[in-house]
């Protein structure tokens, strides 16, 4: 087991003479046994970061340490890591048993007996004992992924690196494998870096999540910290489903005004607003629909569309002064008697409101 440290890591690619900054000065300390999820939209630099840790991509600047050992220049096989890819990357001509033992035969001096013991134990852990003599083409996608994971487990590495390992599975299997992977990682207690663009995976699996955008690390935090106290507007919008509602507002006296919203702000909150040009954010789950206006945080609105989700509804709301087509969402109990075109009151509790600097995106609190 090992601690993994990324110290001011940068990666530049050269694209026909143009420099692409794929990862810009990222620092993350990953604890021994921690499950860290790297998450962010397509192209944000997740895979490049993982590939630098794996040694599949050179590091332009910064230092990478595995268990206090600088590994910037170490070959992949000398880093004591095991990687699991989205594509599974199994050898098609080999059986499951051969796929799992191959890496060990090549890179270790374990005896045949020790290798077979490790393969036995990993196949038991992954529930694939019955598949040992099959070829990958004779396996379902889920089974192939189990073999790919089993192959990583037999290596007994210091660190697991996983690049979107579940994204080729259907939704149901993905959810099942998600819990299985978590249990596995807890049992093995191996430091793991897991890349995904799926925020549900990040929220449910990570001890901590590192959110990347455009090569820049935005926040490293527990899933709940990132949800409740996002460092900036990007994180606030990326984490949470449906996305946080945002209004561009200006501070005018004791209220913020803009995007059709006129919202009173108490003095204790106003004191923290270091800019007059702001973004007000409110999560759909924090918007309530009530009968009457009882305070200046209750706002008359019209229901545009109701999107039934089963036990809950996403209700799209129109502010009377908003531009055509500009709605915001309340996520409410599916039994709430709300229909399109209803005139209702949206309650936006002040303690649930987030403010961001409109120019830097930084959270103000
Ligand atoms: P995805 O989720 O789509 O896989 P990602 O977050 O993993 O995206 P990366 O694959 O790390 O993103 O890419 C980060 C940036 O670096 C992108 O702009 C990409 O185009 C660029 N990039 C990646 N590999 C290379 C390369 N070999 N040469 C030039 N540019 C590259």
Overall description:
The protein is of the alpha+beta class. It folds into 2 domains: 4-238, Rossmann fold (3-Layer(aba) Sandwich), CATH 3.40.50; 245-364, Beta Barrel (OB fold (Dihydrolipoamide Acetyltransferase, E2P)). The protein has 9 helices and 21 strands. Strands 6-7-8-3-9-10 form a 6-stranded mixed beta sheet, with helices on both faces. The chain has a 6-stranded antiparallel beta sheet with strand order 13-12-11-14-20-21. The chain is elongated. Bound molecules: adenosine-5'-triphosphate. Residues 13, 15, 20, 22, 40, 42-48, 197 line the site of adenosine-5'-triphosphate (ATP). Adenosine-5'-triphosphate is lined by residues 13, 15, 20, 22, 40, 42-48, 197.
Strand content: 25-35%
How would you spell out the order of helices and strands? EEEHEEEHHHEHEHEEHHEEEHEEEEEEEE
| Overall mean confidence score, pLDDT | 92
Largest sheet properties: 6 strands, mixed
Going by CATH, what is the homologous superfamily of the largest domain? Answer: P-loop containing nucleotide triphosphate hydrolases
